[in-house]
Design goal:
The chain has one domain. It has a two-stranded antiparallel sheet with strand order 1-2. The longest helix is centred in the C-terminal third of the chain and has 16 residues. It is globular and about 40 Å long. It is mostly helical. The protein is built from four helices and four strands, in the order E-E-H-H-H-H-E-E. The N terminus is likely disordered. Helices cover 46% and strands 9% of the residues.
Length: 93
């Protein structure tokens, strides 16, 4: 894996589990990416940058803030019960 400052990955791009396979885009390929693949991506990549001063951490935090501020309070109440699934190292991701 490249160091964070040299990485060409984007936070919404989920790497393929197949060698040389094309990454999936979280938004456009939603529903076709299984949860195990996303959890593996989180454990092998997101957890390595989430508490560092790098672009991926900034992007991840900004995306979280945008999503949470756009939700109605009723929806936010339903989403926050799943907090342990979208927090990494105690930080939203």
């Amino acid at each position: 894996m490249l160091p964070h400052n040299q990485s060409k990955r984007f936070i919404m791009s989920i790497p393929s589990i197949l060698a040389g396979g094309a990454p999936s885009q979280l938004l456009s390929d939603y529903g076709t990416i299984d949860l195990k693949r996303i959890k593996t991506y989180r454990e092998t990549y997101i957890d390595t940058y989430i508490d560092t001063a790098c672009r991926e951490a900034q992007d991840s935090n900004l995306l979280y803030e945008c999503i949470m501020k756009s939700l109605a309070s009723e929806c936010k109440d339903k989403v926050t019960i799943w907090k342990k699934h979208y927090f990494a190292k105690g930080l939203p991701s």
